[in-house]
């Protein structure tokens, strides 16, 4: 029987998180193994991830496993992981995220009832690892309308762009991914996978599931910490500009300026983040400012990245999480 859904988990040195993620998936995959496959792709981890996966496969041979000798960046890791999938739809699952108990049953039902959908986006619960209390969890989208809402690609991006950057929340056609590989995403820094997906499913229907179907566990320290300002301040507007050129999104840069880049506090916080990695971002100031049309912001870019002490970001971040969470 043809697999309707592939759940693929690219992982790199995250065994401590991966164990719990796999344990949550196994009973769901067992119940739906005729229609679902679970694949773990090891991006040349040097912790004991390999031993753990090989051990668990002995009791659960339904899990597919690929170990890669060469370590690659995030998007290339996604691409070669997807190439191992056989499902009509694919979800790239974060190795530190947890599925709701009936995630797979819900997705299969939605897929069967919406066979022409290009993308399905899940609502989620967000929590930080340093505060495991239930009271600290947050529902990403607290407005409930109907179980499933339908959008065209342009409307979907303008409604859910930031939410859908969370990779575990988007299910997409594998054929759409393969089609989108021809789209040049090299300057989308960190969001290359989104450019590929949206390009490949352009003119198709996107669905939003209002049920919170996974828990996003957010460690305060991640391997891409130093790259986040690059993703946010350069990669995102580059992508919006390309979306506009390709007809994927109407007025892409205006949407970025009015919606994503309009908060001065968030902008300063991201610049502080960049200031912690001065050697990496001093040469990027002009590129960052090419998308800032306010002279005050342009001044802040140079001032914060060049002159604010590197340790300031750590202090602000500690205060931010202490008070907010």
Q: How would you portray this structure in words?
A:
This protein is of the alpha/beta class and 325 residues long. The chain folds into two domains: 5-218, Spore Coat Polysaccharide Biosynthesis Protein SpsA, Chain A (Alpha-Beta Complex); 225-324, no CATH class. It is 46% helix and 19% strand. The chain has 14 helices and ten strands. Strands 1, 2, 3, 4, 5, 6, 7, 8, 9 and 10 form a ten-stranded mixed beta sheet that branches. The N and C termini lie far apart (46 Å). The mean pLDDT is 92.
Please outline the helices and strands.
Elements: E1 5-11, H1 15-31, E2 36-42, H2 49-59, E3 63-67, H3 74-82, E4 89-92, E5 98-99, H4 103-113, E6 117-128, E7 138-139, E8 148-151, H5 153-160, E9 170-173, H6 174-180, H7 192-201, E10 205-218, H8 228-246, H9 252-260, H10 264-275, H11 278-281, H12 285-289, H13 295-307, H14 312-324
Parallel strand pairs: 1-2, 1-4, 2-3, 6-10
Antiparallel strand pairs: 4-9, 5-10, 6-7, 6-9, 8-10
